[in-house]
Inverse folding.
């Protein structure tokens, strides 16, 4: 339980550990305004109760009483700090379009050499930890693995720890997401440079690059890049290893990835403790997505002001997107944040006959084809019911039913769980079955209401964030395609 003193900008919330709850319902009796039972008889937090807990000391006290009386210790209190956007320099540019100069994605099938990255500005200076922190903060760098957490803030949680470790997360198993594999295979020295910079920033001497077991090209090129960097004396006293990762979706979750590095199965861990406190081998660990490290290297080579010369104030720079028809084939492209979804897809001739677009990958959201003028920024996509997520954009054609597509996505998530939380192991397969029945003509309005209720209370219930993504994509279907979903009730897919 986080016992830090809350401020006026903080929210306090309760969570139910889905691996421990056995459905006795003591919490519901003690604090019914905070807890309820789901369709499986397991406890869950009432949606939207965070503001109630923070505003009313009596409600919080009842939540703490429920915490104390739960026989399985399944309830915990958390402090949710308000996050501020990275600061923008006074002369930061207004919203701008793309850049003709590639930053992350090179023309054609080019594989960059060490000399090639040096010519583009890489490996040029040795920066102090304080200077690197300033660069990350001034450039507005955030994570590119899906959460978008400010990079400098994440570093601060590790700085000063004894023998910290930095892990480059290149475990990328979600169908239709290829950006990290592209960077590992085509820009290995860019990624390696970013890893070394992050290690200097937090005082780490050990770095680990995690690569999927079946990403053979990426693994070979990263191994060659490490050897070349050692020969050139670029690593100094740093040790950098490569770790192959089982080809399971859940293995990309940061605590499951740390388990793999330690030689255990890829099973997410309950937090706290967080990796920044107790990570791999018991040491404070900074886990950064591969693209995040590549962005760091680019920002350091360009300088914060030049880095922010494209994009928006809130989302500076460019991003690597995987685009294509749903199910493939896919292409990796680079676009400045702030361009419209329509603009990004028009250049690839993907919109002819488009019925819908899945934005942010399987854990993103489904948008209608007439709603594609939304900007590719986190706030704009959130408002539309989607997210940047893994920056995968997949277009559904006229013959692809959105209900069936979402059923397949939820079924995929259900098959990829770590088999430790009932909301995933029991809930997701059941929800996929309801969606398939809806598409096939076997679901009535009562089952549809059951689907909506369960998905509306799923976020935050698992040890990892897998159920949150499943909930987001289903709710985007129910919200943005309500007319089509309604037409499926009874007769099935029209």
């Amino acid at each position: 339980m986080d016992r830090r003193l809350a401020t006026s900008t903080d929210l306090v919330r309760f969570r139910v550990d889905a691996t421990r709850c056995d459905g006795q319902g003591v919490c519901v009796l003690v604090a019914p305004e905070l807890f309820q039972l789901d369709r499986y008889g397991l406890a869950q937090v009432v949606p939207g109760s965070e503001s109630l807990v923070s505003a009313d000391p009596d409600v919080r006290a009842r939540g703490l009483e429920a915490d104390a009386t739960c026989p399985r210790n399944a309830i915990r209190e958390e402090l949710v700090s308000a996050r501020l956007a990275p600061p923008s320099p006074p002369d930061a540019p207004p919203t701008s379009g793309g850049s003709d100069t590639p930053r992350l994605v090179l023309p054609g099938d080019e594989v960059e050499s060490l000399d090639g990255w040096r010519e583009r500005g890489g490996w040029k200076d040795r920066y102090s930890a304080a200077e690197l922190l300033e660069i990350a903060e001034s450039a507005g760098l955030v994570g590119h693995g899906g959460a978008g957490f400010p990079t400098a803030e994440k570093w601060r949680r590790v700085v000063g720890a004894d023998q910290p470790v930095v892990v480059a997360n290149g475990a990328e198993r979600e169908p239709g997401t290829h950006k990290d594999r592209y960077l590992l295979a085509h820009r290995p020295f860019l990624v390696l440079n970013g890893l070394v910079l992050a290690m200097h920033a937090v005082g780490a001497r050990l770095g680990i690059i995690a690569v999927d077991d079946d990403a053979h090209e990426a693994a070979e090129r990263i191994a060659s890049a490490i050897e070349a960097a050692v020969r050139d004396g670029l690593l100094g006293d740093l040790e950098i290893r490569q770790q192959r990762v089982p080809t399971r979706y859940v293995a990309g979750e940061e605590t499951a990835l740390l388990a793999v590095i330690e030689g255990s199965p890829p099973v997410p861990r309950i937090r706290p403790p967080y990796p920044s406190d107790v990570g791999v081998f018991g040491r404070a660990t900074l886990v950064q997505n591969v693209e995040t490290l590549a962005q760091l290297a680019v920002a350091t080579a360009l300088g914060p002001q030049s880095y922010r010369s494209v994009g928006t104030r809130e989302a500076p720079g460019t991003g690597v997107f995987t685009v294509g028809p749903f199910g493939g084939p896919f292409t990796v492209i680079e676009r400045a944040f702030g361009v419209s979804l329509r603009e990004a897809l028009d250049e690839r001739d993907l919109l002819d006959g488009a019925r819908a677009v899945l934005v942010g990958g399987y854990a993103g959201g489904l948008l209608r084809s007439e709603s594609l003028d939304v900007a590719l920024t986190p706030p704009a996509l959130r408002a539309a019911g989607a997210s940047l997520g893994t920056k995968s954009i997949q277009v559904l054609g006229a013959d692809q039913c959105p209900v069936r597509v979402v059923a397949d996505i939820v079924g995929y998530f259900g098959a990829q769980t770590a088999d430790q939380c009932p909301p995933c192991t029991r809930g997701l397969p059941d929800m996929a079955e309801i969606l398939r029945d809806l598409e096939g003509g076997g679901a009535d309005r009562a089952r549809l209401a059951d689907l909506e209720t369960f998905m509306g209370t799923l976020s935050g219930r698992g040890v990892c964030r897998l159920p949150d993504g499943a909930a987001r994509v289903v709710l985007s279907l129910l919200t943005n395609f309500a007319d089509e979903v309604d037409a499926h009730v009874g007769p099935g897919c029209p």
Remarks:
- Residues 64 and 345 are 50 Å apart (CA to CA).
- The domain at 11-80 is CATH 3.30.70.20 (Alpha-Beta Plaits).
- Confidence is low (pLDDT under 50) at residues 1-9, 82-98.
